[in-house]
Amino acid sequence: MAPKNTKKKTAEGANSNVFTLFEQAQIQEFKEAFTIMDQNSDGFIDKNDLRDTFAALGRQNVKQEEIDMMLKDAPGPINFTVFLTMFGEKLKGADPEETILNAFKVFDPEGKGILKKEYIAQMLTTQAERFSAVEIEQMFTAFPPDVAGNLDYKNLVYIITHGEDNDQE
Predict the structure, then answer these.
(1) CA-CA distance, 75 to 52, in Å (whole number)?
(2) Phi-psi category of 24—alpha, beta or left, where left has phi over 0 and alpha has psi -120 to 50?
(3) Which residues of 3-18 are buried (b: 16+ CB within 10 A; e: fewer)?
(4) For the chain, how are helix, strand and coil distributed in percent, rounded to 5?
(5) Which residue has the higher pLDDT, 163 or 104?
(6) CA–CA distances in Å: residue 65 to residues 51, 73, 91, 134
């Protein structure tokens, strides 16, 4: 009987360990993201939830294959614990620059490396933890778009993760 109990504790421990990978504030942010993506509020993220999430972000014609590939990464139905575990696995060993860059790439399906100022402002003021007008203004003051109104997010991510080059003196 003892080996069965030990096995059960190990399995439970493996599931609960995912919560030790992140700080409580991070877990809360992941929970908010999960809740936003769980469009039908059934506690699971499925194909329809992903399609609806993409639509809410302005991407209408997402290919079924793309959605299937995303869901294939999961070991089964995606509840919050699975969602958090998947993020833990993806972030484990990933450098912060790559992680932030990948977040921007969701909004840049063509991979141009730039996003329109208006589009970024709209996304940041209408989705998830919404930015205030003051926060948007501060961001564009710190990271001004080019004359065409484009923000080079690759450069932005580099500066966020590495700091600005002060060798220009």
Answers:
(1) 22
(2) alpha
(3) eeeeeeeeeeeeeeeb
(4) 60, 5, 35
(5) 104
(6) 12, 13, 24, 40
| The amino acid at 164 | E
Contact 146, 152 (CB under 8 A): yes
Alpha-carbon distance 59 to 52, whole Å? 9
Q: Which two tokens stand for residue 3?
A: 């080996």
Residue in this structure with the two tokens 């993409």, named with its chain if needed? 54
| pLDDT-derived band at 13, boundaries 50, 70, 90 | very low
- The span from the CA of 1 to the CA of 80, in Å, is 32
With 0.70 as the threshold, say if the pTM is over it: no
Q: Are 38 and 14 in contact (CB under 8 A)?
A: no
Q: Render pLDDT for 82-138 as a digit per residue (tens, 0 to 9).
A: 888 887 777 666 667 887 888 888 888 888 999 999 988 888 888 767 888 898 888
| CA-closest candidate to residue 72, choices 60, 84, 56, 86 | 86
User: How far is the C-alpha of 9 from the C-alpha of 118, rounded, in Å?
Assistant: 51
Residue linked to tokens 């709209």 = 122
> How far apart, in Å, do the first and last CA atoms of the chain sit?
71
